[in-house]
């Protein structure tokens, strides 16, 4: 088993065993900032001298992919008899993406010396927003009815600020831009920071996430098999859609695996914040509990290798 996964399992064990292990919130916040910037810089440096064939088509495709996953998730959740506002909030989490799941996928591929297109960090930034926007729109449609709706009328500016200027998008695109402009030579003094230290710091962060995931399981259990089944089955379905989309775009096996992983992932940082602003009536424990308590552990233990196998099968 990959050491990165073992770090995560260590965190889960610590939580279940009621250990006094605790990582300060300020430390985990700092690590998340580092990881986002490092991913952007690493992608930007490689992008500095790379050609991106069919860039416009790829940009449109990944945006449509994120929005489509949110719509499919909403339809499935309504079929499973979730309330409209809860379904809208939850589908936004699954239409958006998890940057840490992406980082685990990149590490998995690098350990196996599988090449990945340099511009995949751009996919992370592009796919973060569409699902959230679809979730907000669905919530607005569900919330129509007699009487005033001050939340629906007043929160759009806040929601758009959270979607497009949250730290994830800002740091990813900022790092990507800095790396692409500066190139490897001028960023050589920072190589240790964004490359050599990356895996060790990611492992430390996964201990914290393992503890959080174990703690969030209690938010999932009251919803029973409906939510547990969705949190495990949905990423496989969305991952297959992502891998197939990558194949249509002409991506390598590594690129298809990354796009499948992104499609299968669920946001537990940007989406909860945005949906709390946009749909305060929805149960916030539902989205973050499923995304962090179920889908994230599934993806890093089982999902990433599964999407890699899907990609290899499609590539022939």
From TrEMBL:
The protein's name in its UniProt record: Sodium-dependent bicarbonate transport family permease
InterPro entries to which the protein is assigned, alphabetical: Sbt_1 (IPR010293)
PANTHER family per UniProt: SLR1512 PROTEIN
Secretion signal span: none
Transmembrane regions: 55-77, 89-110, 122-142, 163-182, 197-215, 227-245, 251-271, 283-307
A Pfam short name: Sbt_1
UniProtKB keywords: Membrane, Transmembrane, Transmembrane helix
Organism encoding this protein: Piscinibacterium candidicorallinum
């Amino acid at each position: 088993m990959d050491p990165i996964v073992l770090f995560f399992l260590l965190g889960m064990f610590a939580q279940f065993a009621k250990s006094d292990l605790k990582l300060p919130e300020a430390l985990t916040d700092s690590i998340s900032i580092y990881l986002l910037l490092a991913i952007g810089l690493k992608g930007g440096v490689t992008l500095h001298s790379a050609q991106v064939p069919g860039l416009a088509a790829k940009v449109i495709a990944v945006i449509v992919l994120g929005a489509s996953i949110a719509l499919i998730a909403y339809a499935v959740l309504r079929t499973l008899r979730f309330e409209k506002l809860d379904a809208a909030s939850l589908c936004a989490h699954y239409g958006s993406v998890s940057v840490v799941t992406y980082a685990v996928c990149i590490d998995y591929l690098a350990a196996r010396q599988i090449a990945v297109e340099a511009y995949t960090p751009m996919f992370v930034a592009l796919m973060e927003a569409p699902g959230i926007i679809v979730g907000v729109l669905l919530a607005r449609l569900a919330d129509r009815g007699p009487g005033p709706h001050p939340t629906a009328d007043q929160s759009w500016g806040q929601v758009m600020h959270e979607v497009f200027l949250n730290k994830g998008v800002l740091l990813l695109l900022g790092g990507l831009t800095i790396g692409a402009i500066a190139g490897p030579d001028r960023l050589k003094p920072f190589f240790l920071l964004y490359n050599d230290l990356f895996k060790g710091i990611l492992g430390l962060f996964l201990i914290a996430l393992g503890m959080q995931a174990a703690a969030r399981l209690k938010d999932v259990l009251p919803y029973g098999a409906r939510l547990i089944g969705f949190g495990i089955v949905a990423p496989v379905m969305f991952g297959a859609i992502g891998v197939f989309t990558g194949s249509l775009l002409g991506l390598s096996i590594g690129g298809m695996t990354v796009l499948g992983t992104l499609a299968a992932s669920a946001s537990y940082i940007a989406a909860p914040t945005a949906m709390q602003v946009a749909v305060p009536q929805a149960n916030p424990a539902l989205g973050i509990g499923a995304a962090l308590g179920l889908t994230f552990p599934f993806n890093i233990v089982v999902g990433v290798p599964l999407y890699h196998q899907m990609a290899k099968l499609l590539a022939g």
